[in-house]
């Protein structure tokens, strides 16, 4: 009788050890298949958002630079070309190739649109678009190698009529009629 009691108490002592091993195995499996990929997803999304913010800032700056340079040139075509080239220069000064390990960045004069507003000939609207690929660091093991980012920035500029400015200057310089004889 004593042997059967010892066996029962011995089996009872072995049972929790088997459960502890299974719990450890499940914890490791959850870590490998759930926690580590989630951590990788968080890191990749953080890099993606940082690259998008930098790309958006560069595109917005390029649109503003294009709007500011619209007065360079004698004709409308020369002004548009100067604005487009200035936008490209500004963009690559702020988002050089390979920034944030990006690749395939596309931003050229073809991505800069300068349009006169149909309702107001003195209002110019500039739209700048750029694209780039951001590589995945951790999610490539799940099948995602990169993400394509496309951003757009817009700016506008209203021309100042020089004639109105000259007329206002002349108007302020007029001498009142009663003060001429003094």
How does this model look, in words?
The protein is of the alpha+beta class and 182 residues long. The protein has helices spanning 2-68, 76-94, 162-173, and strands at 103-106, 112-116, 123-135, 146-158. 54% of the residues lie in helices and 19% in strands. Strands 1, 2, 3 and 4 form a 4-stranded antiparallel sheet that branches. Strand 2 (112-116) and strand 3 form a beta hairpin. Helix 1 (2-68) runs antiparallel to helix 2.
Describe the structure concisely for a colleague.
The protein is of the alpha+beta class and 182 residues long. It has 3 helices and 4 strands; from the N terminus they run H-H-E-E-E-E-H.
**DSSP strand (E) fraction?**
15-25%
Kindly report the average pLDDT value.
82
For the termini, the CA-CA separation is 138 Å
Radius of gyration: 34 Å
Shape: rod-shaped
Number of helical regions: 3
What's the order of the H and E elements? HHEEEEH
Unreliable spans are: none
Number of strands: 4
Major sheet characteristics: 4 strands, antiparallel
- Find the structural class using helix and strand composition: alpha+beta
Q: What's the number of domains?
A: 1
Proportion in helices: 40-55%
């Amino acid at each position: 009788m004593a042997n059967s009691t010892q066996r029962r108490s011995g089996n009872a002592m072995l049972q929790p050890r088997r459960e502890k091993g299974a719990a450890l195995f499940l914890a490791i499996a959850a870590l490998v298949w759930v926690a580590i990929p989630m951590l990788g997803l968080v890191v990749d999304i953080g890099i993606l958002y940082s690259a998008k913010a930098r790309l958006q800032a560069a595109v917005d700056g390029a649109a503003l630079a294009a709007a500011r340079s619209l007065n360079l040139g004698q004709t409308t075509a020369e002004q548009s070309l100067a604005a487009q080239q200035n936008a490209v220069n500004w963009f690559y000064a702020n988002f050089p190739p390979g920034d944030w390990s990006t690749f395939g960045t596309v931003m050229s004069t073809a991505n800069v649109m300068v349009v006169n507003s149909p309702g107001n000939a003195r209002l110019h609207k500039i739209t700048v678009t750029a694209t780039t690929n951001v590589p995945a660091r951790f999610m490539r093991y799940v099948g995602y190698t990169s993400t394509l980012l496309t951003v757009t920035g817009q700016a506008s500029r209203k021309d100042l009529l020089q004639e109105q400015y000259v007329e206002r200057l002349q108007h302020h310089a007029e001498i009142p009629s009663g003060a001429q004889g003094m």
